[in-house]
């Protein structure tokens, strides 16, 4: 596909919307070139690598035609999303030091952010999850706003959440060592992210109902 879109690729590399500003926010994670490559990989993957896969020259040519018309819009959509994520993440980084006295909550938030936003988060995060990142980051911000007013509430909710995360993390480590992927376990990981929204920033809503009890029952079926 890249071979077919050589001209579009060159144009895209030089004209990604908001790249300079995104690059400045991305600096703690990697270089501008790192970010550019990830954005282009994601744009082309979203344009071209869609099931069902082309199985002959005619269907490949048809896919190329469809993809070519979508590249510009996808570049705008993806850069807008990643730009928002990086801007929100940067705001949280500046906000966190004010909560140093809340050790457990701050440590938990820092670990959560580290899992969500890594050097290759643009391409390593499933796109359907990446689209929810602005809500996840907003939920963290709201949690911090509520923390000062009621630290006991935050501690109680974190205590409810932690056993579920610990179960998932142990399983994920074992699977990683075995070099095995488990779709259900991976889905559970993202449900835990939704549970954080439900617990700490309920006003943001979740796409589907989640609760500690629901996820406990679900985990029992996976165990």
How much helix, percentage-wise, in residues?
A: over 70%
Low-confidence stretches: none
The count of helical stretches stands at 11
E-strand count? 0
Shape: globular
Which sheet architecture does the biggest sheet show? Answer: none
Kindly provide the radius of gyration, computed on alpha-carbon positions and rounded to a whole number of angstroms. 20 Å
Strand content: under 5%
Secondary-structure element string: HHHHHHHHHHH
Mean pLDDT: 95
Report the structural category: mainly alpha
Q: What is the CA–CA distance across the termini?
A: 42 Å
Summarize the structure in short.
The protein is mainly α and 223 residues long. The protein has 11 helices and no strands. It is globular, with a radius of gyration of 20 Å.
Summarize this structure as a short list of keywords or feature phrases:
single chain; 223 residues; mainly alpha; 11 helices; globular
What would you note in describing this structure?
This protein is 76% helix and 0% strand. The chain has helices at 6-14, 19-26, 32-48, 57-95, 103-116, 121-124, 127-130, 133-149, 151-178, 183-200, 212-222. The protein is globular and about 60 Å long. It is built from 11 helices and no strands. The mean pLDDT is 95. With 223 residues, the chain is mainly alpha-helical. 18% of the residues are buried.
């Amino acid at each position: 596909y890249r071979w077919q879109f050589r001209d579009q690729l060159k144009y895209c590399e030089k004209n990604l919307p908001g790249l300079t500003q995104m690059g400045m926010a991305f600096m703690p994670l990697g270089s501008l070139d790192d970010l550019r490559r990830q954005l282009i990989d994601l744009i082309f993957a979203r344009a071209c690598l869609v099931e069902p896969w082309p199985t002959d020259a005619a269907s490949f040519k048809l896919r190329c035609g469809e993809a070519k018309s979508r590249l510009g819009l996808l570049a705008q959509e993806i850069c807008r999303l990643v730009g928002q994520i990086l801007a929100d993440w940067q705001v949280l980084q500046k906000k966190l030091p004010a909560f140093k006295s809340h050790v457990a909550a701050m440590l938990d938030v820092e670990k959560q952010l580290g899992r969500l936003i890594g050097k290759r988060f643009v391409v390593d995060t499933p796109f359907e999850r990446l689209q929810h990142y602005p809500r996840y980051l907003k939920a963290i911000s709201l949690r911090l706003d509520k923390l000062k007013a009621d630290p006991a509430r935050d501690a109680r909710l974190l205590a409810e959440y932690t056993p579920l995360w610990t179960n998932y993390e142990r399983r994920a480590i074992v699977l990683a060592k075995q070099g095995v992927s488990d779709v259900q376990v991976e889905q559970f990981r993202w449900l835990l992210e939704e549970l954080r929204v439900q617990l700490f920033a309920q006003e943001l809503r979740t796409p589907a109902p989640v609760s500690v009890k629901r996820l406990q029952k679900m985990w029992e079926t996976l165990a």
